Amino acid sequence: MFERLKKFSVNAKAAGQNPAQADAVSSWADAQGFSFAAAGEGQGFSLTGMVDNKPWRLECGRSSRDYLLGEELRARAELKLDRGASVLIMSRPLKEMLEKRAYGIYTDTVQTTADPSLTEEMRWLALYPEVGWNGLPEAFWDRYAVLANQRSHAVGWLDLDLAGLLLSWPEPGADAKLPFILMLLRGKAYLRMQYTPGDLPMLQHATLIFHAACKLALADRSTDIVCD
């Protein structure tokens, strides 16, 4: 037993959290009915759960994108959605930064389209146009950009409540410049964002957003997003 506790302590420190912070996350996860696991050295932790009988997983660890500084939260849910529906909600400063980077790559005659710096996020900007509609607060459109292969898919998924959650991050947590992506893609839901280790309120709110986004996608049949 003591060896397991010692190993857990080492893993928590390697994940950028002290044991007390990891214990707080574990206790909160348990109260919510989520499974918590500290990963190997330098790999952070993971949470798993179910939303309407569909499995989801959220991980915290070292960033896999250079636009995310420090730690990263990334979540994925196997919702079995219509694979033709593609909707991305992206923080506007991140979209503008990626557009500038992509433009620099495209105009550099030395580089090619096979350049590894052309990330999947940049390709999304080329594939999906930005869409908008009335009914959401101006503050939302100031902070986020919505891209979709069909506008109706975005309208059917992103309602006023989800927009409100995306605008109500706990203080002094995420500001408008924080890199953030929430999406429906390839039949699944995804979240990716920059994270400060030990910031439990931000973790809780990110999980709330992701869970709400999954439920909305599963509940919405007005645009045939969900596959039976």
Give the fraction of residues assigned to helices.
40-55%
* Count of helix runs: 8
One letter per element, helices H and strands E, the order comes to HHEEEEEHHEHEHHEEH
Mean pLDDT score, rounded?
Answer: 83
Q: Over the alpha carbons, how many angstroms does the gyration radius reach?
A: 18 Å
Structural class: alpha+beta
Explain what the structure shows.
With 228 residues, this protein is α+β, with helices and mostly antiparallel strands. It has a domain at 64-219. Helices cover 40% and strands 23% of the residues. The protein is built from eight helices and nine strands. It has helices at 2-14, 19-32, 92-107, 120-127, 138-143, 151-157, 160-167, 200-219, and strands at 35-38, 45-51, 54-62, 71-77, 87-91, 130-131, 144-148, 180-185, 188-195. Strand 2 (45-51) and strand 3 form a beta hairpin.
